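[Meeting: bench + compute handoff]

Bench side (C.D.) handed over the final construct sequence. Compute side (W.E.) agreed to return the predicted structure before the next meeting so the bench team could plan truncations. Sequence as handed over:
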Amino acid sequence: MELTIDYECPQCKKSFHQRFADISPGKIRKCTHCGATVALTLEGLRGFEKALEAYCRP
């Protein structure tokens, strides 16, 4: 299973997935639904932390 992170678009509020291996801080992404630019934020990292904890639980 590959680890992914969910981004929520600030414009359309829809989520899209990115592979963790493809993420780097400050790298701009485009929403796959509306095309708005999206950057990883502190709030996004906190959400990722929760997802990672859930992923690592047996």
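W.E. noted at the follow-up: The longest helix spans residues 42-56. C.D. will use this when planning the next construct.
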